[in-house]
Amino acid sequence: MSIITARDVTLSFGQTPALRGASLTVEAGEVLAVMGPSGSGKSTLLHCLAGILTPDDGEIHFDGRRLDTLDETARSALRRDTFGFVFQFGQLVPELTAEENVALPLLLHGVRRTAAVRAAREWFPRLGLDGLERRRSGELSGGQAQRVALARGLVARPRVLFADEPTGALDSLTGEHVMDLLVDSAREQGTTVIVVTHEPRVAAYAGREVVVRDGKVHSLAGEPVGS
Ligand SMILES: Nc1ncnc2c1ncn2[C@@H]1O[C@H](COP(=O)(O)OP(=O)(O)OP(=O)(O)O)[C@@H](O)[C@H]1O
């Protein structure tokens, strides 16, 4: 069953076309890698699928509902309640401890602080972060910070996790470890994952790979992907 469908999505930034008729179907529960050269439109596609950007043309459906025509309030509620995010540099809040960072999405869902922090703490042994709960992001290594960001992306059990170059700032061994944990944790809780990466070794963790080229989505074999 498909969870996200993009049909002929186009989006330009001023005179620069970023997406030129991108179509893609994402199946519920799959781990999909989005590959492609720099500037081909991968992040823009991810942002459209996640309701962060609105396409100029085309349609995006999430769970049978039109996503791209929702107003900003509805899209932001969807992002908060249903989606999780992991970015290249973790983007932890430096003033908060690691466990408070992980608890953030739960607090935004209205979970009480004690319960949110308790749930957040459960992620630390799972991700090999035991003992780092009270550290601030400046006191974590890149790999540790990215695992904290991963826990934050998954703690609220999102339907879809959007990951944009989640291993981009890590050395390859640490990156593979983070991908391993990401894929295992997401599969365990049935979260669909869409991961943008330019690293084939990272994409190899996905169940399927697509390639964005010149603002369009292709299969690995080079065929345009239809919706
Ligand atoms: N906010 C923006 N303003 C203007 N142009 C933008 C903006 N964001 C992206 N672009 C342009 O849109 C095109 C697609 O960019 P996008 O970031 O989606 O590519 P990408 O495949 O994710 O690249 P990379 O692998 O380098 O991150 C590029 O030509 C880029 O310069």
TrEMBL record:
Keywords: ATP-binding, Nucleotide-binding, Transport
Cellular component, GO annotation: membrane protein complex; plasma membrane
CDD domains assigned: ABC_MJ0796_LolCDE_FtsE (cd03255)
Residues annotated as domain ABC transporter: 4-224
InterPro entries attached to this UniProt entry: AAA+_ATPase, ABC_transporter-like_ATP-bd, ABC_transporter-like_CS, ABC_transpr_LolD-like, MacB-like_ATP-bd, P-loop_NTPase
PROSITE patterns, sorted: ABC_TRANSPORTER_1, ABC_TRANSPORTER_2
Pfam families named in the record: ABC_tran
GO molecular function terms attached to this record: ATP binding; ATP hydrolysis activity; transmembrane transporter activity
Identification of the protein by name: Putative ABC transport system ATP-binding protein
